[in-house]
Hints:
alpha+beta, Aldehyde Ferredoxin Oxidoreductase,  A, domain 1, Aldehyde Ferredoxin Oxidoreductase Protein, subunit A, domain 2, 29 helices, binds iron/sulfur cluster
Amino acid sequence: MSTTDIQVMKQAHKVLAEFTYEPGAVERGYAGRTLYVNLSDNTIASKPVTQQMKDVFVGGRGFGLRLLWDGISADTKWDDPENEIVISSGPLGGTIGYPGAGKSLVVSLSPLTGCVMDSNVGGYYGPLLKFAGWDAIEVQGKAERDVVVFVDGDNGRVTIEEAPEEAVDSHVLGEQMAEMFADDEKGKRAVSSVSAGAGADHALFGCLNFSWYDARRGRMRYKQAGRGGIGTVFRDKRIKALVVKFSGVKSGLNNPADPERLREVGRRVNEEMRRLDPIQNDMASVGTAHLVSIMNDYDLLPTHNFKYGAHPEAHKISAGVYRELYKPAGIPDGCWYGCTMACAKAIEGVTLRTGPYKGQVVGVDGPEYETIAGCGSNLGVFDARWVAELNFYCDTYGLDTISFGTAMAFVMECYEAGILDKEITGGLELNFRNVEAAAELLHQTARGEGFGLIFGQGIRRMKKIFAEEYGGDPQFLQDIGMESKGLEYSEYVTKESLAMQGGYGLTLKGPQHDEAWLIFMDQVNNQIPTFEDKAEALHYYPMWRTWFGLNGLCKIIWNDVTPEDNALTDEPAKIPQHVENFRQFYNAVTGQELTKEEIIVQSERMYNFQRVFNIRMGHGLRSNDAIPYRSAGPVTVEEYESRAERYDKQLRDVVGFDPKGKSTEEKMAALRAYREDQYEQLADTVYKRRGWTPEGVPTLEKLRELGIDFPEVVEVVEPYL
Ligand code: SF4
């Protein structure tokens, strides 16, 4: 990319609106104002952050929820101009002395689910935005033509600029934004952009790429706000990029109330990380790829559309292979300054085999575990290099690798079951293992062509189309289509873990593992045997994990390294020492003195507020928490028979049904009746523990107890009580 190219692009910009402001300083984690941008009428405005905003909504995802609630009505749809994209870091976001403190939280109405979506992402945008003077950016309206919104934190200026010449795909656009807005090569670290890609123009599972400049690799890197189609909303608003510039990042910019306390807890955490990560999960070398073999060993690695949990070829996509591919080796790969966990691995020097960039040599950010499982084992693909190819194109097209992988696995099973054929797919033979056909379908999706247009609708809509237009059995499609609330499953097999079925189904946004990841506690370690135990876990863990999103933090720091004596504590699964570290961190920055119980209450407030928000949008009730049967048990005869010993034993020992002499179909029916009933009983117990009615509605008592019984909140729940 030449300087002339960038100048030509820049000259083609037309400034539609300009707003100037005093940059200001951050106090105790807050900039004290949020930035409002309307792309329909080119308004740019500043909104104050009130004490109530901080006390009740904390920051990050909480700010996103409050601003979105106020910005839309109960009738707003994802593609209405009123829908917003809110990005916020949170009061602890941008801290350098504590690892994993550079996350941005994105909130919007989802095209896939129709309800509220939140996504937690690395990269520099959120923290730089705060240091540029804004706790959040709230983008509403739709532009007529493609625009870039530029926040210049160095000079106190915000502009909306028409940007006709820039690329759409992220790996090109991110570089263009850095070239255009950075003062020089070194200054690229001061610039971060948010972008999507051509895929987000046509598919409902568009994602966002958040960039940062990696000086060691000499290129822009990207982390994805993947889930729920926020990239689709972004492109529907005709945004090419949101760009922020802030020079002079250094420690202390959050102006913590007690810098010494912060230094002390940060030093402890970093020291432990450096000492224990290499002998525990070795995240700094292989990132989350280490999970592949663990999941495979415990029959949890999704294979062939979640039919099975293990495969003899899994070693070909496991940590040993990626350790060789992640290059250059030994580079600290933090997605924000000072992350000693440094798990954001990348593969350099990949020559692309397909698509519009075929033959080009690129860097691939990842793949992480979810992408390896989604674009690998779940498709029957056990070739690390092809997984990297799908990873690259999903990212640059602005498509979520998890939704892409799970939707592709669904399509492949439909193809093998005879619901789809070559006539429908335009000649693509979409059998499991056929990664070239999968790649071609991905390119079609990005071009908005052929079967790619149907594929881009996601599983929930495909189920309807396949039943109505191609004669598929609706019940079979329902059973094997791995979505709940309209969101595709992330990549764990949950058949043998009732708690994890709840961890995917009894959620706010849909089946994403960031609310509650209970498989090991439940299935492997049998630590939560009763309904009450599982319900307690399905209360505590979503609340604890929500807290990271309120504060701009990465949850990996909490549990991927554990203290040597963790097993001796009262509640090892909660990792009490790390909870205490986070409490110290929060109190040191904000100057409050919250207990660990009060921290959970902060999250519980937001969790219940978001549940009510979903109800307001026509979702968020018990019926919306249903899960497909494949996540609870075997759907097909081959699936049952592959683990017949396990299922027969359970029928005999637990269900009270003698499998002897029974057909596989009879046994499957008995097992299904039992497991479906278990899920309903779990829902009853969890709702009760959360203070909700049997229909899953927060009670007035619960809302009062949490201090969120605002008139507009009570008005939503009252008809259901
Ligand atoms: S642990 Fe990994 S994902 Fe989390 S902040 Fe650090 S580098 Fe980013």
